[in-house]
Fold ABC transporter domain-containing protein.
Amino acid sequence: MSSIAVANLTYCHNLFSPPSLVDVDIALPPGSRTILIGANGAGKSTLLQLLAGKKLVTAVGADVRISGRDVFRDSPPGVTFLGTEWAMNPVVRGDIVVSAFLDSVGGYRHKERRDRLLDLLDIDLDWHMHNISDGERRRVQLCFGLMVDWDVLLLDEVTVDLDVLVRDDLLKFLKADSEERGATILYATHIFDGLNDFPTHIAHMCFGAFTTPPTPWPLTPDSPLTQQFQPSTTLYNVALQWLKEDRDFRRELEKQGRKQRGARRDETVPSDSETFYRKYDYSH
């Protein structure tokens, strides 16, 4: 049985927007560590939030399961989701001491694992949450989220604020934890330095669809990706090439009528905002 299984998944945020996910079908084995690669807006965060049950799918035929259980109708235990929005929550930016915060969320019940994470993430229990940096607040989030054993871990850009040493220690911890307990990780990130030895699979998303489904990593001579890459290619270079291809593809679509990004050099009539600011520009 797959640890994560998604079939026939299409998702729209509202009735007026194009789909954020289109016909997604993936299956991840237990113990796998999959890196999601894709440009901003490719659908990575939406997919992770759906797997965590944070958004509801109403499309007929969509099937989203973790450990064989429907994430919307039979919520599976052992699923942990860690995303970037946590650190902006006013509750965790208040004047509360880290030791009291961790106790308030049950840290006293998981002392051994909590203390291991406190050492690994280099956290001062006397920090006040409103007085620390974003990176330090992110460390507290990771301790809070990881101190309870998980079967499936969904990570959305949560290492972006960490310094390189703490990030490296964290990735080694997660890899060992996954291997020891057969736990599954699905990780969306834009930081690929030091990540080459972490995943068992990589996947590529573009415009809400998987252009490359989860594929074993590192590459082997018989990998389906060897038509594009040498087996010795690093994860960083794979990601760089995929993202360049995505950008080229989007620019071709723009030539065919898709809304363009970047400067609007063909406009001869000033915009309303430009007209206004020119009229009241007192800088000269």
